[in-house]
Amino acid sequence: MSVKYVASSKLPTPYGVFTMHGFEDTETGKEHVALTIGEWTEGEAVLGRVHSECLTGDALFSLRCDCGFQLQTAMQHIAEAGQGFILYLRQEGRGIGLINKIRAYELQDQGANTVEANEKLGFAADLRRYDMIVPMLEKIGINQVKLMTNNPRKVNALQRFGVEVAERVPLQVGKNRYNEHYLKTKSTVLGHLMSEHHFHDND
Q: Among the options 25, 58, 66, 126, which is catalytic?
């Protein structure tokens, strides 16, 4: 496996003090991070999120997606529980990269949905991979998770790599007038599980 653990440090946040574990993928040059709070025993199902990088949502407060809201809410839930993890994976734009994501946004500005835009650019709807989670979870001592996600494909991906998903915890946050169409596409085209009221509450 090309993903190597490098170092750990404290990461104080508005939600609590996490421990940040750095990993390097020597094959791709990508750097991934695990955040943890608390302790657990072997075989315990630990609350957590596997989050793919979204610079626009996570760092630039974009309202075009729900990514930043999901990351913040996951950190908050974990801190409140006093136990949990986040794997922050550097695969921007469902794996197509930042510049191609901007190209896709340009097509979305012209009326395409998020999947159509990716396909017009010659990409699959979702190019993310999850093999790097295996050494990351192994390092932080987790093999069973309570996964915060709306995406059943992510649950299946983790299970394919031998991670037991004891529970899927919905994470329905961040709907607004700029991302309502995007969230509908996630639900109807990509199969994300979202309740109807998630689309009708006007923020």
A: 126
